[in-house]
Amino acid sequence: METGSELGSYLRVRRERVRPGDAGLPDTGRRRVPGLRREEVALLAGISTEYYLRLEQGRDRHPSDQVLDALSRALRLERDEEDYLRGLARPAPRARRRTRPETAAPGVTALIQQWSTPALVQGPYMTTLAANPMAVALSPYFAPGVNTLRAAFLEPGMRELYRDWESMTAKAVAYLRSLVGGDAADDPRLVELIGELSLGSERFRTLWARVDVARKSSGTTLLRHPAVGELDLRYEKFALPAAPGQVLVTYHADPGTASYERLQLLAHLATRPGDEFTDR
Residue 78 is part of which domain span? Predict the structure, then answer.
């Protein structure tokens, strides 16, 4: 899609998701369209309805910073969503993409091998580039070479592993949106991944169409491990400055909790020869 169309599509999707009452407008009952009308967005943003219509239709591709600020307020966008809107309106020059394989830095790989908590390095497509034994013991889908986004939607085992599967998948797609911005159509590998997931998962198609954007770098995830039971783990994501697009992901549990004890048990089981987690 051309930039103007992407900008217009995003404005339309966000407009349809704002309830009149949330925007301070009277809700007159039954409405023909979900969310706000175009004229209501224009009113809230202080621009003409005709100008807003041109933006949605892609006939105006260069809104000013003041207009973008006003639209962000009218559509009640969060910071990541506002950044995404600006990226669509002000796309960076697109450099020629290289298709060489991605690898994690040897130093980072060696470092996480020494850690007793699960840790892995992911590339910009959410493919695991390096993982320590605890990460693989936590989930075989964290093993190097596995794309965790693909596994989340296409592998039944991921639904069994994540007690919060619906929340996890929603956050994963919103996180992907925040990473790729409006460049999805310009990246063959990303187009292939999105196409595969769109064909194979109705859940992914629904989430991708929502155009949610959120670069959440920490939080809690709820797992059900086949060997040690339920785990409530905190995750942290750290961008690796020396490798743009790569992220270090770690998982840990608060000391003194049942999850902490179970994570220690998992560490013990992971060191026992002959134990296999990938077949469970």
Answer: 3-89
Question: What's the pLDDT at 271?
Answer: 79
Taking only the tens place, the pLDDT of each residue in 141-166 is: 999 999 999 999 999 999 999 999 99
Alpha-carbon gap, residue 218 to 252, rounded angstroms:
11
Whole-prediction pTM value?
0.80
Query: What distance in Å separates the CA atoms of residue 142 and residue 130, rounded to the nearest whole number?
Result: 9
Q: Is residue 99 assigned to a domain?
A: no
Which tokens in the block code for residue 15?
A: 């407009």
Ordered alpha helix ranges (H), 127-164: 133-138, 148-154, 156-161
Q: Do the domain assignments include residue 280?
A: no
CA distances from 163 to 200, 221, 265 (A): 21, 8, 20
- Containing 9, the helix (H) or strand (E) segment is helix 3-15
Cα 267 to chain center, whole Å?
Answer: 29
Three-class SS state of 162: strand
**Token pair 């990938």: residue:** 278
**Cα–Cα distance for residue pair 190/71, rounded to 1 Å:** 29
How confident is the model over 42-60, as pLDDT tens digits? 999 999 999 999 999 988 8
The count of domains in the chain is 2
DSSP helix, strand, coil percent of the chain (3-state; round to 5): 50, 15, 40
The answer to the question of residue 76 being in a domain is: yes
- Map tokens 């000391």 to a residue: 255
- Strand ranges, E, within the chain: 119-122, 128-131, 218-225, 229-239, 247-252
| Contact (CB, 8 A) for 40 and 20 | yes
| Angstrom distance (rounded) from CA 273 to CA 280 | 16
